[in-house]
Amino acid sequence: MAEKAAARVEAARLVAAFRAAGAVEVETDILQPAEVLLDLYGEDIRARAYVTADPVRGEMMLRPDFTVPVVQMHMADGAEPARYCYAGEVFRKQERPSARRAEYVQVGYEVFERNDPVAADAEVFALFARLLAPLGLRAATGDIAILTAAVRGLKTLETRKAALLRHIWRPRRFTELLDRFGGRAPVPPSRQALLRALSAGERPGSAPHVGLRSKGEIAARLAALVEDAGAAPISAEEVARLEDLLNLAAPGPAALAHLREMTREMPAILPAVDRMEARLDALAQAGIDIGTLAFEASHGRTTLEYYDGFVFSFHAANPDLPPVASGGRYDALTEVLGQGRSIPAVGGIIRPGLVADLGGLGPC
């Protein structure tokens, strides 16, 4: 009880600071429709969220985060531009006992700004950096848009690029696919057997049709497997460049210089790199020491999957602790939840319980 009370105190301080920055405080339901989250993340979300059944509303989930319901609220009737803040419990399953709690208080700040997204990125990060400064945390940044642009620029089948993009947030599976598409790993035996059967003219149509996929979907999937088997591997040079990008970790200006060099062979990333440079300029104007600000190209790949641009986090010295704060840009999510409408959006969350554990912020 004492831990929750301390978290509530820090949450109130943070919400007051966000309100002072121009945000409107909002609330969302603790029980959220499971259908929306399943559509966004697929069945994988079940391993992370608490699912229950309501006799009237159907399958529901205990709120795993605030961003999705806040975006839904804004896209339904929000004015532009808009800034929101919130505080409340979120619930996420943990695979093993750890410093990560299954239920904890989350405080957040979200900005919906159409005219200058780069300035909004800098605004959110600089605000978090100022509020968290008393804790002496380590900040890290990244940009999912650079990585996705690099994948889209590969000279290979669209189906392969789609598979890699789908698994960007699952680094191990991404690496396995890249190894296979690059010819560095063998095709799984089960797929080899299926391809042999298909090449011999056999089709699974004689077996009873079971499962959710239609016969047309199954036929399209089989055709894609045959096309993939006959396609040339992704070149060793392209794989090496992509791995170089994935492994890039340096202070912001040095990372930018390296990425500028990479655009000579990877022109697809140029627009995202231009945005990164503009963002670094905006961060510097907001008082951030970009010369020491860490940039990691793979940063943000293990978070929820709606981030599609700038990402950031703040960490305590204890590596066993989860990030004290994290956030990023999620433009595509607003289009998905806006039913055809969209607006650039960026935000972040802070764990006030961790803030209290680390000594608290004092007056913000």
Q: Averaged pLDDT, please? A: 88
Inertia-based shape: globular
Q: What fraction of residues sit in β-strands?
A: 15-25%
Q: Spell the H/E element sequence.
A: HEEHEEHEEHEHHHHHHEHHEEEHEH
Strand-pairing-aware structural class: alpha+beta
* Unreliably modeled segments: 206-211
Domain Aminoacyl-transfer RNA synthetases class-II family profile: 18-363
Subunit structure: Homodimer.
Pfam family, one: tRNA-synt_His
GO molecular function: glycosyltransferase activity
Describe it.
With 364 residues, the protein is of the alpha+beta class. It has a domain at 157-235. 44% of the residues lie in helices and 17% in strands. Strands 1-5-6-12-11-10-7-9-8 form a 9-stranded mixed sheet, sandwiched between helices. Mean pLDDT is 88; it is low at 206-211. This is Histidine--tRNA ligase. One of its GO terms (molecular function) is glycosyltransferase activity.
In short:
The protein has 364 residues and is of the alpha+beta class. The protein has helices at 2-20, 34-41, 67-77, 117-132, 144-152, 158-166, 171-181, 189-199, 215-230, 236-246, 252-262, 270-285, 331-337, 352-357; strands at 24-25, 31-33, 51-54, 58-62, 82-91, 103-112, 138-143, 249-251, 294-296, 310-315, 325-329, 345-350.
Key features of this structure:
3-stranded antiparallel sheet, aa-tRNA-synth_II/BPL/LPL, transferase, alpha+beta, 44% helix, 14 helices, 364 residues, single chain
